[in-house]
Amino acid sequence: MHSGPTLVHHGLAAALALGLVFGASPRVAAAQNAQGSQQHAAGAEHQHGAGHQHDPSHHAQHHGDNPIVIAIHGGAGTIRRGSMTPEMEQAYRAKLEEALRAGYAVLQQGGTSLDAVVAAIVILEDSPLFNAGKGAVFTNAGTNELDSSIMDGATLRAGAVAGVKTVKNPIRLARAVMEKSPHVMMAGAGAEAFAAEQGLEIVDPSYFFTEARWEALQRAKAQEAERPVLRDEEEGAAETDAGARSLGAADAAPDAGAHDVAFPDDYKFGTVGAVALDRYGNLAAGTSTGGMTNKRWGRIGDSPIIGAGTYASNESCAVSATGHGEFFIRNVVAYDICARMRYLGLSLQEAADQVVMQRLVEQGGEGGVIAIDRQGNIAMPFNTEGMYRGYIDRDGNLVVEIYKD
Ligand code: ASP
Q1: Which residue segments constitute the domains of the chain, with CATH numbers given?
Q2: 135 C-beta closer than 6 A to ligand 1
Q3: Residue among 271, 287, 322, 384 flagged as catalytic
Q4: Mean pLDDT in consecutive groups of 10 residues from the start of the chain, 405 residues
Q5: Is residue 271 among the annotated active site residues?
Q6: How is 248-273 classified by DSSP, letter by letter?
């Protein structure tokens, strides 16, 4: 049932720990209206104002039986109601909605799932709110080192970059690795040289400086000075109920709430990701991150690792993860969800729940995933207090949520 995919492609422990999920109830912001959407009508502008009512007949008319779906995340963690100002919460919600709409517009206009994933992630990378691109967290050395990956479910092609310091939009570089090189993964200076060759936007490392992330690093270091560096397993056990953590600093930070008010995502995983299903029936997934606050020694998490933080296959599903990367690498989380669907015949929700709500929980691995399948089903389990997340489903409904309940 691969519908001619190639024809249409163009197109630390701590660190952050966790955070606060905004709690709130799911919000149905607006129904999407596919009216006016024409296949390949690139550039067509659609009105997506809140309050538009979705008309399924338009959907059917323009997309045939093929659903289009997009889901995104902006990190999971101990995001608590009351630890964020209404203004801050609104800012997160607005940015998530903007990213969803951008990705969905691509799908409506006949773009591919890869195009939609990149469009959504670039918006989140360019926002200081999320731990990716502009808002990337700081390493122990005071640098920003970014990781990203992307995968095409139709062909199983994939691209990834790790530890880049000068590439404005790492998701674009991951895609270039996939499409413009014979490789899957590049790291450090070599990846940056490739980015320049490909004409991608290069920025001075100072572009990634934000006061809030810098202060978060200082707090992580202060905590670390009081506590020894623990191994992940110890951290996981020690922090099961913790509201905060940073790589190398296993402090449970009982007063995390105070910090949270100042900058609510000090204690969460702020990685961003997107998964999409296009009208050609093809799945794609992408993830981008600054990693974990106070990371060192060239530490790389799950986000740029195909199979751990990102995976997509038309045979099963598309997954992007966020959480304590070490656990996600060891459990090959994204691939395991897809494999459970294929091998065990599980539904998307069952497969995602088994991995995120059972296996990871048993090990103390905090985080969550967004996942979709070829029928347009959506699953977004997370075992933290919250996860910045949203989707536009196959009926055109837009939902943005932050907290668990
Ligand atoms: N998974 C990312 C990492 O371990 C962190 C995150 O999701 O925020 O690098």
Answers
A1: 18-208+263-403 (3.60.20.30)
A2: no
A3: 271
A4: 35 29 28 31 33 39 74 89 87 97 98 98 97 96 98 98 98 98 98 98 98 92 76 42 34 32 50 98 98 95 98 98 97 98 98 98 97 98 96 98 90
A5: yes
A6: TB----TTHHHHHHHSGGGGB---EE
